Automatic annotation (TrEMBL):
One of its GO terms (molecular function) is metalloendopeptidase activity. One of its GO terms (cellular component) is membrane. It comes from Peptoanaerobacter stomatis. The chain crosses the membrane at residues 89-110, 303-322. Coiled coil: none annotated. It comes from the Bacteria. Its cofactor is Zn(2+). It is found in: Membrane. This is Zinc metalloprotease. Belongs to the peptidase M50B family. CDD domains: cpPDZ_EcRseP-like, S2P-M50_PDZ_RseP-like. Keywords: Hydrolase, Membrane, Metal-binding, Metalloprotease, Protease, Transmembrane, Transmembrane helix, Zinc. Its EC number is 3.4.24.-.
Amino acid sequence: MNIILALLVFGIVVAIHELGHFTVAKLNGITVHEFAIGMGPAIFQKEHNGTKYSLRLVPMGGYVSMEGEDDESDDPNAFCKKTPLQRMAVVFAGPFMNFVLTIVVFIGLFSVSGVPVNKVGGVVENSPASDINLKIDDEIVFINEVKITSWGEITKTLGKTSGEVTIGVKRNGELSELKVMPDEKSGRRTIGIYPKYEKHFVNAIPYAFNQTASMTAQMLDFVSKLFTGKVDFNYVSGPVGIVREMGNSTSSGFSTFFSYIAFISLNLGVMNLLPIPALDGFRILTAFCEFVTKKKLNKKMEYVVNFAGMIFLIGLMIIVTYKDVLNIFKKG
């Protein structure tokens, strides 16, 4: 049951991506032959205003079939007849919707679970914080005269200090200054406190954006290390590995499960923006080159490059999937 739920979620994430392409294509008057959710044989089809809407058997993937997307067309409303900016907008809309979905999921998640604020939620025994008698609900307002307004600023500011630090603590409306010597653990300076989490929809919004930006930066850093050979290939998972982990996450609570949804959606958005043939990023790049040079690229050559990129990605997917299946048997 968990695996089925994970497959459905994966299908929804991809459907949101394709919905972005479809919506902007329609807004730009592009002829859309089909909008499909899932892959394989169709289990439901309905045609409306010249577009066929279909739900397919395998809930992993989906697509938007546009006139003139991969070849030349005489249709004035074909994708290839539109301006470079219009084509860039259609292509970018897919990854953009994945970013939107990630932010929306995070807003809902943080609204329910709360966001860490610059207040003490717990104190580690025999830590610098316990030595200076920090208590739960104490508010950290400054560190060495640096104003603190969020939990992230506490860890960031402590990391830039050296030696003993002065902490401004507000307790019951009264401000006091405390001297403390942080511990050094794994290259990080800590004083032994946990954050307090507060549930507030307004605070969840900027935190969701910050979390999305932070995860995007981490993904791009991982990709750069992957292509330079600085990352162990064993840490890379394909659909099988991701679906398995999502299935396992359903037993870990809603927070972990929805975090996986946000991660998968963001991963799909970020990866698709990479300028690799067959991905959205490459289509954006070619349209941008046309916009700058005012010269239309050879459609056959673009098709060949995209086809080669697709073969490469399929080959990579087969290798990763093979590794995921082996890992399942090993763990089993």
